Amino acid sequence: MPVLSTTRVKSRLEVRIHFRNLLSAVLPDADTASINKKLKDRIRGSQDLFLSHEIMLRPVSYESLDLPELKVLDAAILGASAEQKTLRQAFTPSKNEAAVFLVDAILDPNGMPISGSALPEYGAVMIAKYASSWTFGHEIGHLLGIEGHTSSPRRLMYEDTAKIEGIPVLVWTELVTMRSSAFAQPVV
Ligand SMILES: [Zn+2]
């Protein structure tokens, strides 16, 4: 790193993320490179947004898991059902690291599809395959401690990420919350 960048680098934090793909379209012999490229395209907007605030959303591993019972997830994943236990056993990231599970669908308690869900207690985020391009960043926001939603579609924490307008805003209080999260660690 050039000396001039030292100040910026000092303040940069990273969120280490393990991706686990549960999509039914993924076969054991699927072309990992092309899957990775699709995934990268999907998360790039959110990565760029966070990086503009010195938070790096850093993929550190990627793996497809053949767990048919988890391709459609009950959003109330914190409970004690067999499905919920299987998910938690499927992958437990290291302390202060996150896991992002890509699934076919996520259903709310009424059986309605939702695009994403975050479980800070387990370091986990679920993203449905029909999620918008901002869902990843939005759920990472929840993972990093932002609770609730805003009423402005100009902000990342607007409830319906599919209706976010343009490149969304992260406000100061949201950044302070996220930067103080245990998942946001100094870059080593
Ligand atoms: Zn939300």
Brief summary of the model shown:
The chain is an alpha/beta fold and 188 residues long.
Low-confidence stretches: 5-9
Overall strand count: 9
Coarse shape: globular
CATH superfamily: Collagenase (Catalytic Domain)
Mean pLDDT score: 83
Q: Major β-sheet, in short?
A: 6 strands, mixed
Tell me the span between the first and last alpha carbons.
Answer: 13 Å
CATH topology name, in short, is: Collagenase (Catalytic Domain)
- Structural class call reads alpha/beta
Q: What is the element layout, followed by pairings?
A:
Blueprint (H helix, E strand, L loop, with lengths): L5 H6 L1 E9 L10 H20 L3 E10 L7 E3 L7 H9 L7 E6 L1 E3 L5 E2 L1 E4 L4 E5 L6 H9 L28 H8 L5 E2 L2
Parallel strand pairs: 1-2, 1-4, 3-5, 4-8
Antiparallel strand pairs: 1-9, 5-6, 7-8
The structure holds zinc ion (ZN).
Would you give an account of this structure?
With 188 residues, the chain is of the alpha/beta class. It has a single domain, classed as Collagenase (Catalytic Domain). It contains 5 helices and 9 strands; from the N terminus they run αβαββαβββββααβ. The protein has helices at 6-11, 32-51, 82-90, 135-143, 172-179, and strands spanning 13-21, 55-64, 72-74, 98-103, 105-107, 113-114, 116-119, 124-128, 185-186. The strands form 2 sheets. Strands 1, 2, 4, 7, 8 and 9 form a 6-stranded mixed β-sheet that branches. Strands 3-5-6 form a 3-stranded mixed β-sheet, with no helix packed on it. Helix 2 packs across helix 4. The longest helix is centred in the first third of the chain and has 20 residues, at 32-51. The chain starts with 5 loop residues before the first helix and ends with a strand. It binds zinc ion.
